[in-house]
Amino acid sequence: MNLYSIYRWAFGRSATQNEKGQQRTAPASKAFTRQKTHTLDQALQLSAFWAGISRWAVTISSLPVQMQKWNGQQWVKDTNNQLQLLFDYKPNRYQTTIEFFKEIVLNLVATGNAYILVNREKNKIISLLPLSSSQMQVNVQENGQVIYVYEQNGSHTAIASDKIWHLKEFGNNVIGLSPLEYGATAVGVGLSGDERATQVLDNAAKPSGILTFDSELKLSDKQRQQLKTEF
Fold first, then answer.
1. Which helix (H) or strand (E) is 149 found in, with range?
2. pLDDT tens for each residue of 136-168
């Protein structure tokens, strides 16, 4: 085993590398030894992270969606397009079009990847269902085939690539880089700041501690008063 193989075994692969096997959205190594890895749930509790994600989600989901076709002279709305019919009504049984795109943007902007399960009936698309990117694993087989494995309720389901609509940020040619993973330091600093501020406010904004001095020292009353005042 060469040094490169040892490095890959110890630190794993990042989304910037083109490798077979399970794909990763995180960096292969951390920039700082104290850098923490935060989940999406934890990051969303940071007001700045929430504000950024929600602004993207609300803005993009409010945009109109229109499928077009070329009629020989100009682009016109394709009213018979299967996707147009879904977006005009409901992409799936659970969501409106706006709710659908909000979930897509949440996953894409936060984790760098969004996955949509494409349900067909007689080669006709009948629904588009977003899947949580945090529950999805992407594997590249030796023959180059991409397999998606979705974890839910403790079980794993393999899904063929032709049933998944995969939207991704820049990365390699299979998976996108995760802004959450690559921005872990900034998120960690923000959460640590919130934690420290909470600790201070929980104590009525008063710092706590114990002031000690060498027991062999004998302070005069004036010195004791001066110490209390300065402290």
1. strand 146-152
2. 999 888 888 899 999 988 889 999 989 999 999
Length of the chain: 231
Domain ranges, residue 151: 13-202
Q: How much is the pLDDT for 149? A: 93
Could you tell me if residue 63 is inside a domain?
Answer: yes
Total domain count, the chain: 1
**Residue 22 placed within a domain:** yes
Cα separation, 78 vs 66, whole angstroms: 8
Chain Cα centroid distance, residue 128 = 21
| C-alpha span between 54 and 58 (Å, rounded) | 6
Model pTM score: 0.77
Does residue 172 contact residue 18 with C-beta atoms inside 8 Å? yes
Flag whether 125 is in a domain: yes
CA atoms within 13 A on the CB side of 156: 7
Predicted pLDDT of residue 99: 94
DSSP state of 133: G
